[in-house]
Each structure stands twice: as structure tokens, then as C-alpha cells.
Amino acid sequence: MDNTKRYERLRDRYRNGDLDRRTFLGLIGAAGLAYGLHTPFARGALAATEQVRFDGWGGVVSEAFRQHAFDPYTQKTGINVVDGTFGGGDEYLSRVKASQPGEYNIAHLSGVFDYARYHGLGLTTTLNEDNIPNLQYVIPKLVDVFRKVTDGTLSCVPYDYGTTGLAYNRKHISDEEVKEKGARILLDERFKGKIGGWADWRTRIWYASLQTDQDPNGATDMDAIWEVLRTHRDGLLKYWSSGAELMSLLAEEEIYVTEAWSGRVYALQEQGHDIGYMDPPNGFGWQECLFVIKGSPMEACEELLNFMLAPETSIAVAEGQNYPPALDPTKVDLGAKIPTLPAFDPTGKLDGLTFADPVYWNGNEQEWSKMFGRIQKGY
Amino acid sequence: MTVEAREARQPFILLSPALVSVLLLLIVPLCFIVVYSFWLRTATGADQVGFYLDNWREALSDAFYRDILLNTLKIAAITTAVCAVMGYPAAYVIARSRGNKALLLLLLMLPFWISYIIRTMSWINILGASGAVNSLLMTLGITDEPIRMLYNEASVILGLVHFLLPFMILNIYVSLEGIDTTLEDAACSLGATRWRTFLEVTLPLSLPGLAAGGLLAFVLAAGTYITPIVLGGPTDAMFANLVFEAIITQLDWPLGSALSLMLLAVLGALVLLYNHFLGMGQLMKGLS
Fold it and tell me: Which of A19, A41, B38, B193 is 20 to 30 A from A375, comparing alpha carbons?
């Protein structure tokens, strides 16, 4: 029996409820080991690709990926997954731009606008979708937006989605107050010095659009936006720049309110912190994908993507990182925890989320990112 | 080849590994940065190759860059002054101690075994809202709620002093070690008090070490970007943060190159001034 068949049988047993998740992952590991011992030549054929590099957001997200996807994948294929982290998409893109082709392989990117930027820089690839049969389980809306950017082909597979909403410490701010004030709570004088904010120009301008009653995907009064950004800055304790820093500032009560990533807040709540979370109307919805960068070993990457999209893996990772998977809940039973996660849409249509329009944001990126940089520093 | 010609070539042969290293690791990358500074960033983030002066025009004419540069120099100067005031007594104690000098020097070097970022972040646990100092103050009933000590210019300077103090102490220590102590004895035997001996003999003779430590601390402080990110507030950015932001966040490598060359030029000018008045010999001595 070849290893793929062995894996598929195990997966069927897991789906039928004959195996629990821990046993399933353990047996995959054992199968991988046995494969390595008994068929060294077949393993040698795969060894042409010895490792795949994956870069993501770090913290609980990385831990979930390592535990539920990378280690089982390495045991199955013998291909090592080297995982790195980044604090933001802009920072990572500059690293990729400075690298040699093949140095970076798969990235956990956020937003279609990032996908479009990579495409603009000639860094996309064309995936052979026949090698990724698990793509059939993904919410179609999440796939289609990427196809539009790359002329019907895909350089990535959607993996999860979430929101950047309002997080607040319930000891100091009530749910009612956040509901009433919405995004404007980030400008409230009462919390001066206890407000946080992500040092990301898109998120800042998105929230400034909400605070000035403008369409976040089509603001017209930019002067009002810059003014609100200055007001926000003046009340700020600190611009945070990573998920770990966000969690630390909230958990240590350095800040009482900030916009925050839904999964990170859920993780804080799981740890017992009394942190509330609310998506204001037109809050920032985003989707994340596993993007294959030009110069990567395609077959090894496609196999890893397929492995990661397998419902068992995808659900386990989603439960670990606290973001709903890109799997269509009308096609796949997502278990008990995922429907409780923030931003989860049981219909699979995602109509309740507002995503960033890549053309609008990328078209203004050069000017707005620079302008925000100045305001951020006191101008 | 004559003996004279062979002897004339010998220094260059001996120096060639160092010259090749400097060429490959310093001069060539610097040339790349100079070339980049004349390119342009396009809307997609790709660079437009050519000879454009736009980046230089922006870097040199925009008040934003000038103000941040001045603020950076101010923070570096304050940091250097604090390091000098704190570092001199420490260096003096080490230099004049008899039995435990090696132990004191080892203790001085200990912080270098821990990552600079970790050392910087450790202040969050000390001065943060639920950090050691605030916890103690609240436990003792001195304050009811945490005092804000982080995320301002003072905490940035504190972080920089923490990082740079050992460099300052080492330089002053080297200078004090080189002073012939019989000169101090002679001053005392001529009736000078210990304080006057220090002011008129020890301090003047150790000034080159103080200056060398000052130069090192100033240059390193002016070039830092981690400390303002970790310990600074919204408006405590330093010039290196602008370079980081242009290159990493805005993907504007050409402007980032121009800005980094601007900082290099300012700091290079300071080093030249130092060399003109004090010479680099003392600095090299301190570094060794």
C-alpha cells in the first residue's frame, strides 16, 4: 500500500469516527516513519525537495500550524517545513523582494490586496489545481477573488478568515458603551493614554473612515481622515506592531481599548482575560491565503497545501489559531468549536463581512502609507 | 624583483584579506545603496532604474526628515551625557580596584551575553503597568494606580543608556588604566587633596577615553531603531525608524537608501570632527 493510500484510509476512518484526532495524527506520523524505513528509494525520489519554507504570523497561529500541519506533513513526506514569522505583510514583502528565487516558498498572506501586490511584482506562480483536490471544500467566494487578480489561475489557496474589530477591557469599558460608540471609542478622551492601535496604515485609514462616517472602501474626504488619525494618535499609548504585542498590552492592562484581530482576542478570552470583542458596522473583514512564491518547488508546495486544506488538518489548525477555516460549512462539518469563533459565517457566503477592495487600497498605497507614517510620528 | 620592491609590496599583501573584506562587506554594498538612492519607487512597489534626484530632493528639503534628524541627535546627545555621568564613576572604581578587577570586568561584559532586544524588552516587565516597580509601589500603598513610566522619550533614553553604558565604561576604564598612578601620588605629595588630584590630574588624562566612549555611544544611539519601537510612544521615532519604514513598510528602497546615506553622512561628519581634534587612536584602543 502506498503512503498516500494509507493516509487516505486513515482519513476515512477519522471521518467515520473510528479514530480520534490525536490517534489520527499519531498514525500519520507512524505511517510516515514506516514509509521512510521501508521504501528508502521512493523517499529518495521525494528528497529532491528536502524542505519547504513557510512564513506566517507567529504566536498561537504558528503553534497551530506546527502542531497540526507541518509536523504531520514532514512525517508523511519526509520534507521538512521550515517556518519563519513576520509582523506584517509589508515587512515580509520587502524580505521576499530582497531574496533569491526559491528562498521563500509559502506565505500566510492576509488580504487580496497583498496577493495583487505580489502579482504586480511578478512573484506569483500558477498552481496545478489537480494536485490540490481539497480545494473543492473551500468557500467559492474566497477563491474567486484571487482568480480575478491572476486571470483565472491561482497562486494561492484561501485558508482562513477573520475580522479586525474592537477589543476592550470589560473592567473599564462595558459592552453597551462599545456598542453605542462603535469605532469612535478609539477617540474617546476618557481613555487617553490607554488606547492602542495597530501600526498598519490600511487598518488605521479603515477605522478613520468609520470614525468619519465614510465608506472604508471609498473615502472621499481624506483631510477628515488625516485629522481623525491625528486625534487618535494624541490619545494613544502605543502603536503595536505584532499579535504578541497586542496580546501583551491588553493582558497587562497597559491599554483598555484597541482594534484587534479576532483570533487573538479569542485566545485572550480562552486564557481567562475579561476582554470583550465587537465588530462595528463595516468592520474590517479579511481573508488569509497560503501563497506560493515564484521559484518554489511547486509539487512539494501543492502537496503541502492539499494536506493543509484536508478538513481534518484545516479544522485542527483553525481550532488552534482561533480563526474560522476557509472550508465551506455547507460542505464540511466544522465541529463544535469553530461555529463559536468570532467572524464565523455558517452560510459560507460571507455576506456579513466587508473585505478590502484591492484596487482601491493598492492604488492609494504609495501616498497613504507615507502620509500615515508622518502622522504616526507627530505630524 | 628587488628586495626594496618586495618589501614595499609586503604591507599590501599582509593587509589584503582585510582590504578585500572591507571592499566586499562595506564599500560594494555602500555603492549599491548610492546607486539605489537615484532610482524611483513605482506604484507597484517595483523600482524604476535611472538617475533621478527626487529622493534626495525630498530627503534634504522636507522639514519632516530634518526635524526627526534633529530629535535623533538630541536623544543621542542626552543618552551620551547620561552614559558619561554614570559610566565614569563605575570605570574609576573598576580601574582602581585591586583584587576583584577581573570579576568586575566580567560583570560588565555579562549583559552582552543576552540579546539586545530581550534586554530592551525587560524594561516592560520592570516599568510596565503591572511591572515590578508599579507592583511594589502599589503594594506599599505609595500609589493607588500604576504610574505611567513607559512609552515616552524618557524610557527610550533609559533603554539606550542600558544598552550603551558598558561601551562608555570600557572606554573610560582603558583610559584610566593607562594613567601612571605615580602622577596622582606626586600631586598628593605636593599637597593636593584627593578631589583636586582627580580634577587636575586624573580627569584631564582620561578625557580621550571619555571622548572615545562618547563618540561610540552617540553614533550607536543615533543609529538605533529597536529601542524607540519597543519603549517609545507614538511620537518617539528616531531617524533609523524612518529608514526602516521607507524600506520595509513602504517598500521604497530608493528613498530609504537616500535617508540612510543622509544619516551616514551626518554621523560620518561627527567622526571626522572627532578624528580632527582627538584622533582615532584612543577609539581603537578602547575598542580593542
Answer: B38
Q: Is A80 exposed, middle or buried (0-12, 13-18, 19+ CB in 10 A)?
A: middle
Q: Which three cell numbers stand for residue A103?
A: 528562498
Question: End-to-end CA distance of chain A, in Å?
Answer: 67
Q: How far apart are CA B68 and CA B66, in angstroms?
A: 6
The reported pTM is 0.82
Question: Does the pLDDT of residue A40 top 50, yes or no?
Answer: no
How many angstroms separate the CA atoms of B65 and A375, rounded? Answer: 13
Q: What is the DSSP string of A297-315?
A: -HHHHHHHHHHHHSHHHHH
Sign (positive/negative) of CA torsion B55, B56, B57, B63?
A: positive
The ipTM assigned to this model is: 0.81
- Report d(CA B229, CA B235) in Å as an integer: 10
> All 3 cell numbers of residue B226?
529597536
Contact residues on chain A for B234, CB-CB shorter than 8 A? 233, 236, 238-239, 376-378
Residues with Cβ within 8 Å of A155's Cβ and at least 6 positions away in sequence, in order, are A115, A118, A119, A124, A125, A126, A127, A146, A291, A292
Query: For residue B243, what is the nearest residue in chain A, using CA coordinates?
Result: A373
Mean pLDDT of chain A: 88
Say what percent of chain B tops pLDDT 90.
80
Neighbours of A328 (CB within 10 A): 18
Longest dimension (CA), chain A: 68
Distance CA A99, CA A121 (A): 13
pLDDT tens digit string along B177-199? 999 989 999 999 999 999 999 99
Gap between the Cα atoms of A104 and A54, Å rounded: 7
Establish if A171 touches chain B: CB-CB under 8 angstroms. no
Q: Does B234 touch chain A (CB under 8 A)?
A: yes
Q: Pairing state of beta strands A354-355 and A51-56?
A: unpaired
For residue A83, what are the β-bridge partners? A54
Distance of CA B55 to the CA centre of its chain: 27
Residues of A88-127 as b/e, b for ≥16 C-beta within 10 angstroms? Answer: bbbbbbbebbeeeeeebbbbbbbbbbbbbbbbbbebbbeb
Q: How far apart are CA A118 and CA A124, in angstroms?
A: 6
* C-beta of residue B240 within 8 angstroms of C-beta of residue B223: yes
A90 contacts B250? CB cut-off 8 A: yes
Give me B66's grid cell.
530634518
Pick A241's closest partner by Cβ from B64, B151, B229: B229
Is the torsion defined by CA of B9, B14, B15, B20 positive or negative?
Answer: positive
Distances (CA, A) of A22 to A18, A69, B180: 12, 13, 73
The amino acid that residue A319 corresponds to is E
End-to-end Cα, chain B, rounded Å: 37
* B238 three-state secondary structure: coil
Burial B83-111 (b: 16+ CB within 10 A, else e): bbeebbebbbebbeeeeeeeebeeebeee
State which amino acid sits at residue A291. Answer: F
Residues of A in contact with B252 (CB under 8 A): 366, 370
Q: How far is CA B164 from CA A361, B90, B173, B279, in A?
A: 42, 14, 14, 22
In whole angstroms, what is the distance from residue B240 CA to residue B172 CA?
Answer: 27
> Across the interface, do A237 and B233 touch by the CB < 8 Å criterion?
yes
Segment 123-182 of chain B within 8 Å of chain A by CB? 124, 128-130, 148, 150-151
DSSP 3-state of B250: coil
Banded pLDDT at B80 (limits 50, 70, 90): very high
